[in-house]
Design brief:
Helix content: 55-70%
Oligomer: single chain
CATH class of the domain at 2-62: Mainly Alpha
Number of helices: 4
CATH superfamily of the domain at 2-62: lambda repressor-like DNA-binding domains
InterPro entries: Lambda_DNA-bd_dom_sf, Transcrpt_activ_CII
GO biological process, one term: regulation of DNA-templated transcription
CATH architecture of the domain at 2-62: Orthogonal Bundle
Protein name: Bacteriophage CII protein
Radius of gyration: 23 Å
Organism: Pluralibacter gergoviae (Enterobacter gergoviae)
GO molecular function, one term: DNA binding
Largest sheet: none
């Protein structure tokens, strides 16, 4: 039972983090407009309602699909991979210095 409680807490934090990130990406003002509430309501939800809803979703075993996380990680890795730019000249055209 303790394992399931701990697992639910971990999953709830993950879900809450995902929800907060999605709100941040979309913008609190835009989310409020689409839901039909004031922007201040979204701020209040972040503090009180969202953690409870995240725990409920964790208990119901809802979450971000692992395939989505893997796909997102690959996209981030592709963006962050530093690629060497091709040389503008051939090796024979470059300057060499002998001391």
């Amino acid at each position: 039972m303790d394992n399931s409680i701990n697992r639910n807490k971990v999953n709830a934090r993950r879900i809450e983090s995902w929800l907060l990130n999605r709100i941040a990406l979309k913008g609190g003002n835009n989310v409020a407009k689409e839901i039909g509430v004031d922007k201040a309501q979204i701020t209040r939800w972040k503090e009180s309602w969202l953690p409870k809803m995240a725990m409920l979703l964790a208990v119901l075993e809802w979450g971000v699909v692992d395939d989505d996380i893997a796909r997102l990680a690959k996209e981030v890795a592709a963006v962050l991979t530093k690629k060497k730019s091709p040389a503008a000249t051939r090796d024979s055209d470059q300057i060499t210095m002998d001391f």
